[in-house]
Amino acid sequence: MEASDFLSRAKLGERAFPGLVLSGISLTGADLKYFKLANAQLTDVDLRGANLTFADLSGAKMIRCDLRGAHLFRANLRGADLSGAILAGANLHAAQLDTAVLVNADLRAVHLTEASLNGAKLSGATLQGAHLTATDFRNANLSGANLTETVLSATDFTGANLRGVKWGNSHLLSPIRGVD
User: Fold this and answer.
1) Which residues on adjacent β-strands are paired with residue 41?
2) Cα distance between residue 47 and residue 96, in whole Å
3) Are 29 and 9 in contact (CB under 8 A)?
4) Under 8 Å between Cβ of 145 and 124
5) DSSP-derived pairing of the beta strands 41-43 and 151-153
6) How many domains is the chain built from?
7) For residue 106, how far is the Cα from the chain centroid?
8) Environment class of residue 12 by beta-carbon count within 10 Å: exposed (0-12), middle (13-18) or buried (19+)?
9) What are the beta bridge partners of residue 177?
């Protein structure tokens, strides 16, 4: 689908675009609330400040996408591939990221409060300054991740691979699980 076709159909109120393929388009600040983009292939898409609240991006491949400051409240990103994506400052409160791939992703200062990342792959990811209150990292791979200056409260790391994680200056507000 051409970018102009997607934009005109969205403007007319269409919200379901499963398997959508887009490349090199700017959707900065776009209102994509409740959009169904399961298994979409988005390459070099600029989604800075976009509203993706309750969006379904399950299984999506979001290669080199810029989601800085995006709103992904309760978004479904199960099994999505966000390798190398920029999500700095994004709101992922209560988002579903189970089995998502976030290898080398930029997650600086993200809000992952009550988010689920069960079985997610976050090796080499930067979560510096992230808010991780009641975040579920069970069985996730965080090897080599940067968790410096994070806020940790009731965070669950049970069964997670934490080899080589950088924890410097993290703020522990209440007990966390799964860390020795």
Assistant:
1) 21, 61
2) 19
3) no
4) yes
5) unpaired
6) 1
7) 10
8) exposed
9) 156
Distances 22 to 11, 61, 80, 97 between C-alpha atoms, Å: 16, 11, 15, 22
What is the spatial distance between Cα 180 and Cα 173, in angstroms, rounded to a whole number?
Answer: 17
DSSP 38: T
Chain length of the chain: 180
Q: pLDDT by residue (tens digit) across 48-76? A: 999 999 999 999 999 999 999 999 999 99
Domain that holds residue 52: 1-180
**pTM beyond 0.90, yes or no:** yes
Assign residue 100 the CATH number of its domain. Answer: 2.160.20.80
> What stretches of the chain show up as alpha helix (H) in DSSP?
3-11
Q: Find, among 59, 79, 73, the residue nearest to 121 by Cα.
A: 79
Question: The dihedral of CA 145, 25, 111, 10: what is its sign?
Answer: negative
Q: Which are the contacts of 84, defined by CB distance < 8 A and separation ≥ 6?
A: 63, 64, 103, 104, 105
Q: Is the C-alpha dihedral spanning 23, 26, 28, 31 positive or negative? A: negative
Distance of CA 163 to the CA centre of its chain: 21
Average pLDDT of the residues of the chain: 95
